[in-house]
Amino acid sequence: MGEAPTGAAGFLNVSAAEKTFGAARVLDGVDLSVARGEFISLLGPSGCGKTTLLRIVAGLMRPDRGRVVLDGQDITTRPPHKRDVGVVFQNYALFPHLDVRANVAFGLKARGAPADTIASAVSRQLELVRMSALADRSIKALSGGQQQRVAVARALAVEPKLLLLDEPFSALDRKLREAMQVDLKRILRDVGTTAIFVTHDQDEALAMSDRIAVMSGGRIEQLGTPAEIYDRPATAFALGFVGLSTRLPGRVTQADGDEVVVSTAFGPVRGLGRFLPGSPVLVGVRPERMALDGRGENVVRATLVDAVFKGARVQLHFHAPEGAEVQVEAPSLPAGVAPGGEMTLSFAAADTRVYPLPGDMEAALAAQVAA
After folding, report:
1. If you classify domain 244-370 with CATH, what class do you get?
2. Which pTM was predicted?
3. Residue 1 pLDDT more than 50?
4. What would the CATH number be for the domain defined by 12-236?
5. Average pLDDT over the chain, rounded to whole?
6. Torsion angle of the four alpha carbons 338, 339, 343, 347, in this order, in degrees rounded to the nearest 10
């Protein structure tokens, strides 16, 4: 996989892209720069604008405003077949009347490539996706995972500058989906293709990407490496959408440089943030950063509601007032502890991040203060 850009213009640059459907603004001035050979995921809930952004890059839709530049060429108004961009759709869009070999060869034949070039390219791509033994099989006789491999091979056969993938694993069961994630990452690394991947699955994005663009409401909330997105979410939305977290609404009572003390329903909590005293805020902590003891800077008492076995870890859910969530991940459930029991939880200020309180949580904070 390629390195993320470090300030220079990217291989792909989307600038100030806007798109409106009726009264709904689906893209709101999106900027995105992708380095050559990089794998970027567009991650977000339905309606966030990720698929619209992908379709604009593919040429399947034109932005109301903004530009798309690929490898130094402005392709904003070019038709899809003149963009040198490959697309793998959610439903694969394979030709059921053709066999595997003919499907992979289709794009090269449409471009008028010589027969020997086509044969060589098809053979190479089928080997890359581990489908050589099924080259003569009908598409109808393939499993979903096999069809997905053929769709990737067909897109890569024409050697596009950019590969776009629109939730290509959504129809697969979990185990097969995870296997295909590994295979696709290997394939793209081997060929060095720049790729943009659309998904609503946070685990998928974290596992596959060089960088992730977390999208909400037609904007990119945060763009960073998987570690940055998970460990240092820039907004309350990124915190809530990517991974689990303890989330406590509260109000700042003390401010000291980059740290604040927040009054919450569980008592005072110290965390990282720059806010004025009195500011309504949201405290966020990842569940694996919380310990089942009283040795951290922040110590709270909470009642256990449920313990969910997750194989190597146990996910603990605690009672919390409306608008709050308290979750802990631990290697195991301590002996003698059961739902309904009260436990001491602790966590470090350095692992605690403080965000402006989202508007939809203001009522919960008001109820907490009134209580």
Report:
1. mainly beta
2. 0.89
3. no
4. 3.40.50.300
5. 91
6. 110
